[in-house]
Structure formats: structure tokens, C-alpha cells
Amino acid sequence: MLLFKLGLVALSVMLSTLAARRFGHRVGGALAGMPMIAAPIMAILLIDQGVAQVRAIALATLACLPATILHIVTFAKAAARFTWPVCLALALGGFLVAGVALAAVQMPPWAVCLVAVASPAAGLWHAAHHSGPPARAGVPRIEFGLRIAAAVGMAAAIILGADAFPPAVSGLLLAVPITGTVLPCFTLPRYGAAATASLMTGFLQGLHGFAAFFVALYWGLAAMHPAAAFCVALAAALGVALAMQAGVRLAQRPPA
């Protein structure tokens, strides 16, 4: 299971980097924000642990989503003034504080879902926006490999550490945005603050699909067969992602 999770992390970073090469930093970030890692893991958990446990995990993931948004926004804002180690420290610090605070708040499921759905939109409103055209990222092969190695190493440390802590701490560790941490640390020193802001804005766009997946999965598992609920969740994530990209293209279209 550990090797499978690490393989998903590597695949996510690889696809996001290839998308950035071809379409620009924002598209790479949007792909990284989607549940490419979480969805296959949830499918396996549905088989191994059953509906009740998966619904609990889905709700816990949604409860931590505002902390993930804070992490992304903090890094994007700090990138205009600081180097990547400072940005990373500020982003992870904000994530931990928000995550602990959210864990202490007991909200009903409908409120957790509502806050989770609204969080990416709030993040987009606050984040720095890249106003120029989407430039391709000429990521050299050595950096390509380093991105994957850094992401896999971080994921392994988090997953192994989570097994040694209580459930509340484990849930917080597993909610750390791995691709949202590794990719900007490479993007900022090589491509600058504007490219980093574009990457993180795309990540926030992708997290709309992430939130839609877990909301649909949580409520779908209570009303239909697990396989059907999972397919509905995937369709919800894809539909929201396509709607977001259509909205971005519409907003970028010059006035007639």
C-alpha cells in the first residue's frame, strides 16, 4: 500500500510537470489540485474498510481543506517578497495552525461540506493572479527527476510518520498538500514569483474538483451503492474541473 501511494504521488508530479511544460504553470497547478492521488486511495479503502470508514475519512479530508487553501495562498503571497524556504516555512506554519484549529471545531457534516466547497473560491479571491499569457515551463530533465524524488521523499516521511501518531495528528499529516508544497519550491527560484502565483492559482482551481469529489463521495455513499457513489464523485470532480477551465477561458477572452 505504501509503494502504491508513493507511486501515485510520483505520477501526480510527473503529469503536473508535463502539463506545465505543454500548457503553462497554471494548467500544471490545476492538474495537481485534482484528486489524482486521493481518488485511487479512496477506491482501495472502499474495498478494504467499508462505507462507514470511508465516509469518515472523506469528511475529515473536507474539514482540513481550508488549511490546505491557507497553505497555497500563503505561499503565493509570500513568493512576491521572500525566497522559497521562507515561503515554505510560512505556508506550512499556517497549515499546521489552521489544521489544529479546525480539528478542535466540531461542525455538522453539512457545514463541513459547505465550508470546504467555499474555501477554494475564497482562496482564488485572495491569491495573487498571473495576468500574462500562460507561458510554458521549460523544465530540464534533472529538475524533472528532482521534483519527483522530493515529492516521493516528502510523501514517505508523512505517511510513515502518520502511522506513529494518534488519529487526529495522522489526519493532519495526511492532509499536507504534497504537490502544492514541492512544485512551488522548484518554480519560485527558477521561474519567479509570477509563475509561482500562476501555479498556485491553478492549484486552487483544481481544488474545486477535489472538494466536489469528496462532497459527492460523502453524500453519495449514504444514498447509493459504493461503486455508483464513487463514479458519481469522479464525474462531479471532472465536471467541476471542466467548468472551472471554461470559466477561466471566458474570463481571459478579450471583450468584443
Automatic annotation (TrEMBL):
UniProt KW keywords: Membrane, Transmembrane, Transmembrane helix
Residues passing through the membrane, by range: 29-47, 54-76, 82-105, 144-162, 168-188, 200-221, 227-248
Protein name: Uncharacterized protein
Source species: Ramlibacter albus
